[in-house]
Specification:
This protein is an alpha+beta fold and about 110 residues long. It has helices spanning about 15-30, 80-90, 95-110; strands at about 35-45, 50-55. It is globular, with a radius of gyration of 14 Å.
Length: about 110
Amino acid sequence: VWDASVGGRVLSGESYVQAAQRLCQHELGLTPTSLNECGKFYFEYPKKRKFIEVFCVSGIEPEKIHINKQEINTVIWLSPEEIIARAEAQTDQFKPHVLQSLNLAIKKSE
């Protein structure tokens, strides 16, 4: 099951933006300078709840990514259309909150 490439908890005293920057650095070796808020939502799994804020980042150069192998197994680049097509073909391929995050990003870009 695919998940978002960057995600984690917001630490005490930390903003969502600071958490996103910290997690991008930790997981991908990148510190984005421009994060565009796409929206927030609440997601409930059977045994846990998540408050999620979605940020869009552009201008990432794949060759500059340094994957933290302790955090991430594999990275693939997919367009929003490719994610939607894969999700329609196999409904359990992505975690549900990933698709909801994508919907926020798409609405923000319209």
